[in-house]
Design brief:
Pfam families: FCD (PF07729), GntR (PF00392). GO terms for molecular function: DNA binding; DNA-binding transcription factor activity. Keywords: DNA-binding, Transcription, Transcription regulation. This is GntR family transcriptional regulator. It is a single chain. The chain folds into 2 domains: about 5-85, Arc Repressor Mutant, subunit A, CATH 1.10.10.10; about 90-220, Four Helix Bundle (Hemerythrin (Met), subunit A) (Up-down Bundle), CATH 1.20.120.530. A hairpin with a 3-residue loop joins strand 2 (about 75-80) and strand 3 (about 80-85). The longest helix is centred in the middle third of the chain and has 25 residues, at about 90-115. Helix 5 (about 90-115) packs antiparallel against helix 10 (about 205-220). Helix content is about 70%, strand content about 5%. The chain starts with a helix and ends in a 13-residue tail after the last helix. About 25% of the residues are buried. It is mainly α.
Length: about 250
């Protein structure tokens, strides 16, 4: 009789259509982890041939992993130019934070009233890991710990669909931080996480939602999300030279 691990692997292979399923999942997970840890910055070229060599698989298997990453919005596949790690625009960055505020606040409405002391302890443990990451001054560890806190809090809602959406948004947030962080900014504050738990432990849903909104606004405000300058703004930046010939905007 097969053990449970063998049954699970066989089921996964059958569901995805072939014996290479676990390999493309490994490629997908490895690339995602490298993005989450900021070891693979936005714009990194993902060569199908090179990845095939590294994992000793066909380009078809690599392509399957890349298409899945593209569906997660972590990779952009450009016709005739291959795949690169996504480079979110300023507008996309703002939309991601807006979506996170909506989703994470909504999940609190269901999770806060149902939380047990054991759930509170689980959140405290996540914050402790967050604090340890900040104390280590390891930026990759800090970003991962911060994401783990938000994922762990969301999981307590019991809504797996929203958790899936949020996981994708957290991954995109990592790319946004890599592109738009200021010199002084860091991953979201563990102090804010600690304050959020205090409100949650009181069972105050509305206050928890306000705290989450403010926390995510603060995270967004740490980033340099300035729009690209217009032609007239470019003229102003150039001083007198830029004003010799005014540029009309449509």
């Amino acid at each position: 009789m097969r053990d449970q691990a063998s049954i699970d692997i066989a089921a996964a292979m059958a569901a995805d259509g072939g014996p290479n399923t676990t390999v493309d999942q490994t490629i997908r997970r490895d690339i995602a982890d490298a993005i989450f840890d900021q070891r693979m910055p936005p714009g990194t070229k993902l060569s199908e041939a090179r990845l095939g060599e590294l994992y000793d698989v066909s380009r078809t298997v690599v392509r399957k992993a890349l298409f899945r990453l593209a569906s997660d919005k972590l990779v952009d596949i450009r016709p005739n130019r291959g795949a690169i790690v996504s480079q979110p625009t300023v507008e996309e960055a703002r939309e991601v934070f807006e979506a996170r505020r909506l989703i994470e606040a909504a999940m609190l409405e269901h999770s806060v009233p149902a939380m047990t002391p054991a759930d509170h302890k689980r959140l405290r443990d996540l914050v402790a890991a967050d604090v340890a990451a900040h104390d280590s001054r390891d930026r990759q560890r800090m970003i991962r710990a911060s994401g783990d806190f938000h994922r762990g809090l969301a999981a307590l809602s019991g809504n797996t669909v929203l958790c899936g959406f949020l996981d994708q948004l957290i991954g995109r947030t990592t790319l946004i931080i890599a592109m738009y962080q200021t010199h002084a900014s860091a991953a979201c504050s563990h102090h804010a996480h600690d304050e959020l738990i205090e409100v949650i432990e009181r069972g105050d849903v509305a206050a928890a939602q306000r705290a989450m909104h403010q926390h995510l606004h603060d995270c967004e405000d740490q980033l340099e999300l300035a729009d690209s300058p217009t032609e007239n703004e470019l003229a102003k930046m150039l001083g007198a030279r830029g004003h010799r010939k005014p540029i009309d905007t449509p």
